[in-house]
């Protein structure tokens, strides 16, 4: 039997035993309410942080904890899951339409593969003149005008 199923069965047995005692059941529900409420409050406090993830994660985890014991939280969680599924379906449909429109207008997009260590713009703008210039950088030259690849005289460059 998988571990997850064994844990689920163990938890349900314990929860059933707790439900048999009304005092213990109220205490358990209060503890779940406090823990879930604190998690939700912590999540609400973290939402304005510049990092977008932790606040929302804590908020939804707190709601999940509350939904284990409270029907209203379970309804909210179910509603959010339905909305998330709808949003994902809408995103997939919209992406499909955009891709179809792009292909109809411009043809099939070319796959661009980035090669590490190659800056295509620099290679096109400033090609080496011969093999002796490859691998050199501007720091190797004493004066600004000493760069053999430089087409602009140093005096004219200083005026700009």
Automatic annotation (TrEMBL):
InterPro entries: CHP02611, Uncharacterised_PGPGW_TM. It holds the Pfam family PGPGW. It comes from the Bacteria. The chain crosses the membrane at residues 28-49, 55-73. It comes from Gordonia humi. Keywords: Membrane, Transmembrane, Transmembrane helix. Coiled coil: none annotated. The keyword Transferase does not apply. Residues 113-160 are annotated as: Disordered. The keyword Nucleotide-binding does not apply. Residues 113-139, 146-160 have a biased composition (Basic and acidic residues). This is Uncharacterized protein (TIGR02611 family).
